[in-house]
């Protein structure tokens, strides 16, 4: 924590002052620091997906194996994700009315998990359309 | 716990011969008093058929449906109609409010249809609107209400009086996620007051409000959620962090 604050002070983004009756320092954000913070808040985060998502790999490998009916493993993953969503929804439901932070954090996780459930649904639909429970691996 | 809805080995087949469609196949679903159950499945999985059969709007080809312990097959048409008016509430995706009636008239309608005089029905209807936070919109027609308000009125109509079973088909309709969440909070609150709820949906976020989720595929129950653990540690850890 202090190392980070010292770096910020070196860059002129925070300023420190000694506290008279204690060993600690107080840090305050500078105008340059505020400008940097605002620019950071507005800068788009890197949305690229992790290069190797374990679930995607499991599904692709499962599809490449002959004799594996993927509907069962897809449902196991779906149930696991939905159970996790239930837990986040319980958190949100139990949050105090004036609490904004907890619902926002829960929402972020819920939308992320929901996206994966939708992907599993799309896999199911594509497999059904292909009219086969598994695909042979392609050379 | 009392079972408010029990579907035993329910099968529904439409058509016959080459055009036969199995909408439901040996489905077992039960809902306890005060429990909220979501039935989740893709389009064509049979979830709307399950709901109409649970609500006695349609009869199964085979199997038993018990509502409040009584087998629907043992009831006359009139008895089933009375059960629908008094004990079962329906919420649909497109709200289905009568456009020529005000919010309070819509909410009171099931009671009036059941023979209650208009004044008493509207008094009870107003209580339902109050419970759902739309009492101040009682005199407005559906076209003057927002989507969220319309759905609140629809839920008030579904719960008015002493309903014990709430059946909802994609009840958040085209509402955005925050307004949809408000609807699910109302459904959950009703269940906490003792109403039993069944929500059918393809939407995992909507389903995650339920105590239990039943997964339907091709007319069959293929899975259901288990009891859930407490709050994820990671979320608790992030609490209050900027």
Description of the molecule:
The complex is a heterodimer of chains A (139) and B (242). Chain A has 139 residues and is mainly alpha-helical. Chain A has two domains: 2-42, no CATH class; 54-129. In chain A, 61% of the residues lie in helices and 7% in strands. Chain A has helices spanning 2-10, 31-42, 54-64, 71-94, 101-129; strands at residues 14-18, 25-29. A two-stranded antiparallel sheet of chain A has the order 1-2. In chain A, a hairpin with a 6-residue loop joins β1 (14-18) and β2. In chain A, α4 packs antiparallel against α5 (101-129). The termini of chain A are far apart. Residues 132-139 of chain A have low confidence and may be disordered. Chain B is α/β, with parallel strands linked by helices and 242 residues long. Chain B has one domain (3-227): Rossmann fold. Chain B has eight helices and ten strands. Chain B has helices spanning 47-54, 77-87, 103-113, 118-131, 147-159, 177-192, 204-207, 233-238, and strands at residues 3-14, 21-32, 36-40, 62-67, 70-71, 88-91, 165-169, 196-201, 212-217, 220-224. In chain B, strands 6-7-8-3-9-10 form a six-stranded mixed sheet, with helices on both faces. In chain B, β7 (165-169), α6 (177-192) and β8 (196-201) form a beta-alpha-beta unit. In chain B, α3 crosses α4, α3 (103-113) packs parallel to α5 and α4 crosses α5 (147-159). Chain B starts with a strand and ends with a helix. The model of chain B has no long low-confidence stretch (mean pLDDT 89). Chain A binds chain B through residues 71, 75, 78-79, 81-93, 101-102, 105-107, 109-111, 113-114, 117-118, 121, 124-125, and chain B through 40, 42, 177, 181, 185, 188, 202-205, 207-210, 213, 215, 217, 222-226, 228-232, 235, 238-240.
């Amino acid at each position: 924590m202090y190392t980070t604050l010292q770096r910020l002070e070196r860059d002129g983004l925070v300023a420190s002052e000694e506290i008279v009756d204690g060993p600690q320092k107080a840090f305050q954000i500078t105008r340059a620091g505020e400008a940097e913070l605002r620019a950071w808040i507005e800068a788009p985060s890197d949305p690229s997906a992790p290069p190797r998502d374990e679930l995607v790999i499991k599904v692709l490998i499962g599809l490449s194996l002959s004799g594996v009916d993927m509907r069962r493993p897809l449902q196991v993953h779906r149930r696991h994700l939905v159970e996790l969503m239930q837990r986040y929804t319980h958190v949100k439901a139990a949050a105090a009315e004036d609490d904004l932070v907890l619902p926002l954090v829960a929402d972020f996780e819920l939308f992320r998990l929901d996206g994966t459930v939708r992907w599993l649904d799309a896999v199911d639909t594509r497999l059904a359309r292909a009219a086969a429970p598994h695909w042979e691996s392609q050379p | 716990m009392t079972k408010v809805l029990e579907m035993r080995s329910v099968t529904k087949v439409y058509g016959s011969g080459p055009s036969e469609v199995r909408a439901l196949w040996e489905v077992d679903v039960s809902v306890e008093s005060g429990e909220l159950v979501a039935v989740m499945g893709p389009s064509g999985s049979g979830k709307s058929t399950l709901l109409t059969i649970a609500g006695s709007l349609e009869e199964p080809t085979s199997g038993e449906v018990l509502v409040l312990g009584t087998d629907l097959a043992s009831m006359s048409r009139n008895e089933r109609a009375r059960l629908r008016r008094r004990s079962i509430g329906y919420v649909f995706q497109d709200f289905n409010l009568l456009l020529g009636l005000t919010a309070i008239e819509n909410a009171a309608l099931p009671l009036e249809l059941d023979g209650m005089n208009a004044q008493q029905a509207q008094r009870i209807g107003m209580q339902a609107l109050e419970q759902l936070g739309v009492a101040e919109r009682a005199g407005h027609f559906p076209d003057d209400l927002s989507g969220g308000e319309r759905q609140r009125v629809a839920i008030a109509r579904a719960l008015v009086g002493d309903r014990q079973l709430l059946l909802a088909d994609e009840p958040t309709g085209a509402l955005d996620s925050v307004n949809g969440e408000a609807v699910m909070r109302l459904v959950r609150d009703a269940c906490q007051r003792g109403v039993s709820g069944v929500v059918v949906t393809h939407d995992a976020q909507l389903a995650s409000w339920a105590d239990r989720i039943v997964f339907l595929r091709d007319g069959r129950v293929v899975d259901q959620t288990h009891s859930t653990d407490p709050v994820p540690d990671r979320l608790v850890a992030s609490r209050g962090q900027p």
